[in-house]
Amino acid sequence: MTNETERYMYAGHAIGVGAQFHRLDEAENLSHIVPTLGASVIPVTGGRSQGHSDAFRFEVRSPRRRCLVGVDRVDSWVEGRERRGRYETELSVDVLGLEVVEMLYIDLVRLHLFSSRTSSSEPVVTTHGNRIEGIGWGGASRRGSPSTMTR
């Protein structure tokens, strides 16, 4: 920044899993709130934050008993730093063994995002290594599914 009294304020967060369910089957006006798993937030001064969640299942009994969200593990990190006159924010999230409403199974969801800017430029946002691996639907087992989607 050009003026010594001005400071760059970092803003970055990563959330592995989180959800709200307001309707299931024919039941409406539900309030099933899945807690945030694997959250990381950097302070405005920059730095690094990491989040981790071990195996977790969010089960409900209404309108019928089932698991709305399950994971084997969630890891995330976010980092804000200054390098050679550039302000950088980078984040990564890995969700392993994701299950949604006992219907969708995904072995791995990986997200990576990188943002860079100077004091006089607009941010440039890029991604690298984003992946979805092992997709299964319905009664299919999430283990060993041949479906892979990569971007």
Features:
single chain; 151 residues; mainly beta; two-stranded antiparallel sheet; disordered C terminus
Structural notes for this entry:
It is a single chain. The protein is mostly beta strands and 151 residues long. It has one domain. Helix content is 0%, strand content 58%. It is built from no helices and 13 strands. The protein has strands at 13-14, 17-21, 32-37, 40-41, 47-53, 56-60, 66-71, 73-83, 86-100, 104-117, 124-127, 131-137, 148-150. Strands 5, 6, 7, 8, 9, 10, 11, 12 and 13 form a 9-stranded antiparallel sheet that branches. A two-stranded antiparallel ribbon has the order 1-4. A hairpin with a 2-residue loop joins strand 8 (73-83) and strand 9 (86-100). It is elongated and about 60 Å long. It starts with 12 loop residues before the first strand and ends with a strand. Mean pLDDT is 87; it is low at 140-151.
Order of helices and strands: EEEEEEEEEEEEE
Number of strands: 13
Distance between the termini: 34 Å
Instruction: Using the CA coordinates, give the radius of gyration.
Output: 19 Å
- Biggest sheet: strands, sense, closure? 9 strands, antiparallel
Number of discrete domains: 1
Strand % is: over 45%
Give the count of helical stretches.
Answer: 0
SS class: mainly beta
- Helical content stands at under 10%
Q: Would you tell me the overall average pLDDT?
A: 87
> Shape from CA axes?
elongated
Low-pLDDT residue intervals, each spanning 5 or more residues: 140-151
